[in-house]
Amino acid sequence: MGSLGRCLARSLLRGQPGPRRPPGPPRRHGSDSAELQEKTLVLVKPDAVQRRLVGDVIKRFERRGFKLVGMKLLQANHGILDKHYHQLRQKPFYPSLLAYMTSGPLVAMVWEGYNVVRSTRAMVGDTNSAEAKPGTIRGDFSMHVSRNVVHASDSVEMAHKEIGFWFHSDELVAWECSDRDYTYGP
């Protein structure tokens, strides 16, 4: 069970409404507090949903120590995809990209943690599946660049922008879990 599952289970067993931070070492404050709150967008694309890989993706992020703060299953429409893939609209493969991304449901997630954008890009692997290293999500689960399983924001600025395309601010959950102290230290 991942950290979210453990925290929810503990809070339910204690009869509390949701995850809360137990007594323990105080939180760190200072320059790296903002880095600990960095967020990124991860889309589990229709091919991965069809292949039931969502749990495998979530498990990798939880094992890394990142915190899931938003998740939803949805059928993407052309409007949101036009915003999300704006820089690719003039590319010859754009129509097939739209067809692929609207071919079935996808799972949009927001993950939070220290250097989560850079770490996520490393975990996801090269866009071209043939060049993605074993051990990365694409290296382990993708066979072709046109079915590369996941999308991950490529910068903090882009993550902020992309999260705004897929989530309203009230859809993101601020919660604390004691696993944070074991991941980041005192």
From TrEMBL:
Name of the protein this chain belongs to: Nucleoside diphosphate kinase
Enzyme class: transferase
Entry's EC annotation: 2.7.4.6
Reactions mediated catalytically: a 2'-deoxyribonucleoside 5'-diphosphate + ATP = a 2'-deoxyribonucleoside 5'-triphosphate + ADP
Region (Disordered): 12-36
Lineage start: Eukaryota, Metazoa, Chordata, Craniata, Vertebrata
Catalytic-site annotation from UniProt: 151
Family listed: Belongs to the NDK family.
Alphabetically ordered keywords of this record: ATP-binding, Kinase, Nucleotide-binding, Transferase
Domain Nucleoside diphosphate kinase-like: 37-174
PANTHER family, per the entry: NUCLEOSIDE DIPHOSPHATE KINASE
Any one Pfam family match given in the protein's UniProt record, by short name: NDK
Sample GO molecular function, one term: kinase activity
Gene name per UniProt: NME4
Cofactor(s) required for function per UniProt: Mg(2+)
Protein's UniProt keywords contain Protein biosynthesis: no
Binding site for ATP: 45, 93, 121, 127, 138, 148
